Amino acid sequence: MSYCTAADLPLALSDIDRYDGKRLLSATAFELAVLNVMVYHNSGGVSVLYCDGKNLGDPYTKVPDGSTEFEWWYNTAIDALYIAISESKALLHEWSVAAETKTTQHARIISDASEELSSRLDNHFPNPLPRSTRAGNSRSYDRDVIKATAILACVSLVSSHDPLAKILEPLRAQVDSIITGINTGVIRLSFERTPSDGGGEILAGATNASTTGYPRDTTGACSVGYDKIKIEIVTGGTVTLNSENTTVTYKATGRNGASLLGATLIDGGWQTIGAGLYVQWSDGVYVAGDYWYLEATNVPSSTGKVSTLRGYR
């Protein structure tokens, strides 16, 4: 689960590449292991070795024999880094190491930041958050979700490099403001519905652990004063974008137990569930017995308070 990409990080902090997790090694700390092979003891874990900022590629499979310059190997058993280079040349270069590649580091940090964001949102929000349902949005998630995740990732990268960095305070204040806005309803995410919205509010039911599909949006005008419709998968399977579904079906049952709709194939468009309401299904895997509720009313709210989606897969 990742709510943003590495490309979003510089938008949150322009000089984020400064905090890339590299550690400088002191060239004077190298010792001669064998002819044309230097060793650096207690180097710490090394997955990537840089010489003057250049990635030296994959490690050798054992201690280099010195015949090929810049071959390297990290011995995890004794925490020692070996490099095929002469003693005099080793002093001419700047050496740095990293425990993981930049791509791997960013993927891990963004995944952790996404989890942190979900954990800091009120428990009526689904986890993971659904993707954006706003027409014309070219990104997977709402803008504020992407921004908050990117800032949290930057905070993690910066604090691991310098826990006292001055930039941390404004970054934390910015992400706190976004999270508070989402939790209080000042910032409303695209998937949030209320019962008095035209299409009602989708509520969590129960789904199989392997289920990835869900009712992604609703529309219509509730034709009764109030209803809480159960929408259930009858036949499971996979719904795929731009492919005809001939397997997955759903049905709808009213609050009073009356059948509103028999088994109907999911077709990707707006589909009736009864009471003047329609649902649009996402692509994904569905399992027979998965169900959600759609709560709707045609009575306007007297408080004006916006409630939020309580969760669906």
Largest β sheet strand count, sense and barrel closure: 5 strands, antiparallel
Give the domain tally: 3
Elements, N to C (H/E): HEEEEEEEHEHHHEEEEEEEEEE
Mean pLDDT equals: 88
- The CA-CA distance between the termini, in Å, is 13 Å
Strand order of the largest sheet: 9-18-11-13-14
* Annotation field: number of helices: 5
Helix content: 10-25%
Q: What share of the residues does DSSP label as strand, in percent?
A: 25-35%
Shape summary: elongated
Radius of gyration: 27 Å
Question: What low-confidence regions span 5 or more consecutive residues with pLDDT below 50?
Answer: 301-313
The SS-based structural class is alpha+beta
Count every beta strand, where a strand is a DSSP E run of 2 or more residues: 18
Give a description of the structure.
The protein has 313 residues and is α+β, with helices and mostly antiparallel strands. It has three domains: 6-17 and 101-184, no CATH class; 23-98, no CATH class; 201-297, no CATH class. Helices cover 20% and strands 27% of the residues. The strands form five sheets. The chain has a five-stranded antiparallel sheet, with no helix packed on it. A hairpin with a 5-residue loop joins β13 (249-253) and β14. The longest helix is centred in the middle third of the chain and has 19 residues, at 102-120. It is elongated, with a radius of gyration of 27 Å. Residues 301-313 have low confidence and may be disordered.
